[in-house]
Specification:
heterodimer, A: 455 residues, alpha/beta, four-stranded mixed sheet, 22 helices, 52% helix, 10% strand, B: 248 residues, four-stranded parallel sheet, 13 helices
Chain lengths: 455, 248
């Protein structure tokens, strides 16, 4: 089982770094607030997005078929992958057909989810992540800790050390411009040499049979510009009815993600380029199962990362503490729904503050979803102790006389106990805090006394 | 005879913070309400709802409805318990009296603002000074007692509006309206993150130079109080009702 609390405690133990991580992401959250306030109808826009998504999910089969038919009519090859293995196989086959050995890939959490990179690399194919943050974590042999800011767990100085090893930069120079220029030069070469491009899909348009990829670095465009082969990997929840609804989402996405009015590049791919091949692989990998369950609403997510930036727990525990591809509130919902045994700690990695609900551009009630998931999570063997303790508490609370008696005992005994006995290793509250002191008389008692006096 | 108000006192308030409950009682009585504290009350069931233990939550929720169904109003010095009763009993409690009850259940400031009306409030207490207001999550985001910073809606705060009726009180708020990290069993299960969240809130309040922090949820305050005590930070934590009665 992923033990979020333990991972989080390890992260928090470096308090300076955690504070920096918290402040960096809070800064993004504040940028998001300002961007949202620049749109008078912001809350209406979120409602519209929620409606479009829930309508599309309710008719998902219909819209996916429309998308497939219209994309085919545009000359796009459409393939279906039931799971990660199928995606890996399909992509490898297509690359082989084209004799492609050097691939440039723009950001795609789906390919991360399906383990595409290691698979292709095992077949001798070079895959270069071209999103700067993703390239950084790729060079570090690491995983993204955030879906929009993959390398947010690393400081400039860490990147300087990393680049000096791989890109031969000056290890003492942690200037962001300097490092970005070095990455840029390095990536230009990769773009020039590429035989194929792989991208994700932000929005697939059923009516038009095309799709949209949003990036800030233009790396999807650069990647797809030269090679004749473009493979786009798309989760099946990415479809929306038509371009008519697209504006609702492009207005929300970048504002929610980074506080920009719109992503720097919003690229529309409607057909293969002359002489080229464009393939869209539509991936299920557990999504249709999710659609049938009580967490279906989580499929509305447009992967903006706003719930992570606002989450006080995420900001203080880091993305890797979740042990998932998608971390934070939405990641916990998705992981819990896919494998409750393995991810039972994630629904509890939440103080139920509900801030995520309020920033979610498609209004997923994330904290309520997490609370729902606790029903299954509390039943896993790891939480047998917690469950038993709560059961006992519930029993006492149903018997107020007994409860009062025990509290009376505690009132008498607790103040006399030596500190060492009270603050033992089982006292989880006392690890970080002092215990509250029971009042000399409980309110119940004071109330009784007052009533007697008044009679 | 005034309208009958059932006073709900959360279990930990009853045992650890009777002053908060007593102040609530006094404020309501001073406004002419006939306040009754049913002695067989215990818990609203929230801790069990929050831990996915529906069976146990239901038992306690049913008790709550049964005990409080016949009052004109039910008031509690807690937004999170009231939030649970108001918004989370659906599908849990089948009692036919619940739909009516949920409309008559209030957090104290909400009751003073929405039912009594702030024009009818005036608190004169010997207390003078600056107080940091802790906005608890359930007050902000579940009961809607104030506008949370995430939403693009006009700013308002029912709590501040009520507190503005306390003479000589200056209310200041921290820079972030972020969770203090209590979160019920979260505070022990995720102790490290919880503690850092609480310490960050305390530090935020301290930059405003306050040595009293007040709020509508003693649970959040209990957590921050424990941290401040451990760290030797001289801040006191009181319920807003105590500001109204001067029992500070």
């Amino acid at each position: 089982m992923v033990d979020h609390a333990r991972n989080a405690a390890a992260f928090v133990s470096d308090i300076e770094r955690t504070r920096w991580h918290d402040q960096a992401l809070w800064f993004v959250r504040q940028k998001r607030d300002r961007a949202a306030r620049s749109v008078p109808e912001w809350e209406k826009l979120r409602e519209s997005a929620q409606k479009v998504k829930s309508h599309t999910l309710a008719h998902l089969g219909h819209y996916l078929e429309r998308f497939e038919a219209n994309a085919r009519a545009n000359g796009i090859d459409v393939r279906w992958a039931a799971d990660g293995a199928a995606l890996r196989r399909i992509v490898a086959e297509i690359l082989k057909e084209h004799g492609a050995v050097r691939v440039v890939k723009s950001k795609s959490m789906l390919t991360e989810e399906c383990g595409l990179n290691p698979h292709l690399q095992s077949l001798g194919i070079e895959v270069t992540d071209t999103d700067l943050g993703e390239r950084i974590v790729q060079l570090a042999g690491d995983h993204p800790s955030h879906i929009v800011l993959p390398a947010i767990h690393m400081k400039k100085e860490d990147v300087a050390a990393l680049f000096s090893k791989h890109l031969h930069t000056d290890p003492g120079n942690a200037d962001a411009h300097y490092l970005t220029r070095a990455a840029r030069e390095h990536l230009r070469q990769k773009f020039l040499e590429a035989d194929a491009a792989i991208t994700g899909v932000n929005f697939a348009l059923a009516e038009e049979g095309g799709f949209v990829v949003c990036t800030n670095e233009g790396n999807a465009d650069l990647g797809t510009a030269l090679p004749n082969l473009h493979i786009a990997c798309m989760g099946l929840e990415k479809v929306i009815p038509s371009a008519k609804q697209l504006g609702v989402f492009t207005r929300l996405l970048a504002r929610s993600a980074t506080g920009q009015a719109i992503t720097t590049y919003t690229s529309h791919f409607m057909r293969p380029k002359p002489g080229g091949r464009l393939v869209v692989v539509i991936v299920d990998n557990g999504r249709s199962r999710l659609l049938k369950g009580r967490q279906a609403g989580a499929l509305s997510c447009i992967r903006c990362g706003a719930c992570m930036n606002t989450c006080p727990v995420y900001r203080r525990s880091g993305g890797h503490s979740y042990g998932t591809v998608v971390p934070g509130p939405i990641g916990s919902v998705l992981a819990g729904a896919s494998d409750v045994e393995k991810f039972a700690s994630l629904p509890f990695a939440c103080s139920l503050c509900a801030s995520c609900d309020n920033v979610c551009p498609v209004r997923i009630d994330l904290h309520a979803r997490l609370c729902d998931e606790r029903e299954e999570a509390i039943a896993v063997p790891d939480y047998a102790g917690k469950r038993a303790g709560l059961k006992m508490a519930a029993f006492l609370l149903r018997h107020p006389k007994l409860y009062e008696m025990l509290m009376g005992l505690a009132r008498a005994v607790l103040p006399r106990l030596p500190r060492g006995l009270l603050y033992n290793r089982f006292n989880l509250w006392g690890r970080e805090r002092e215990m509250p002191i029971p009042a000399k008389k409980a309110f119940r008692e004071l109330y009784r006394e007052r009533r007697c006096r008044r009679r | 005879m005034g309208k009958r108000v059932g006073l709900f006192v959360p279990c930990y308030v009853n045992d650890f913070y009777p002053e908060a409950a007593f102040s609530t009682l006094e404020v309501l009585e001073s406004l002419g309400f006939d306040v009754v504290y049913p002695e067989n009350q215990s818990c609203c069931g929230q801790p069990f709802l929050n831990n996915g233990m529906v069976y146990d939550a239901r038992k306690l929720a049913e008790r709550f409805v049964d005990i409080f169904a016949d009052f004109d109003f039910v008031v509690a010095p807690s937004s999170s318990c009231i939030g649970a009763v108001k918004h989370r009993y659906d599908g849990i409690v089948k009692d036919a009296r619940y739909p009516l009850l949920r409309q008559r259940v209030y957090e104290l400031c909400e009751f003073l603002h929405d039912v009594v009306g702030i024009e009818n409030l005036r608190f004169q207490t010997p207390f003078r000074g600056r107080v940091g207001l802790h906005n608890s999550c359930h007050a902000l985001r579940e009961l809607g007692l104030a506008a949370p910073s995430e939403l693009h809606i006009p700013p308002f705060s029912k709590v501040r509006a009520v507190l503005s009726k306390i003479e000589g009180l200056e209310v200041v708020e921290p820079s972030r309206d972020e969770c203090c990290g209590f979160g019920g069993t979260f505070s022990i299960q995720e102790s490290a993150v919880s503690a850092m969240m609480g310490r960050d809130r305390i530090a935020d309040h301290r930059t405003n130079g306050v040595d009293i922090v007040a709020g509508v949820d003693m649970s959040c305050l209990m957590h921050m109080e424990g941290l401040a005590k451990r760290d030797g930070i001289p801040v006191r934590f009181v319920h807003v009702a105590q500001l109204m009665t001067g029992r500070v």
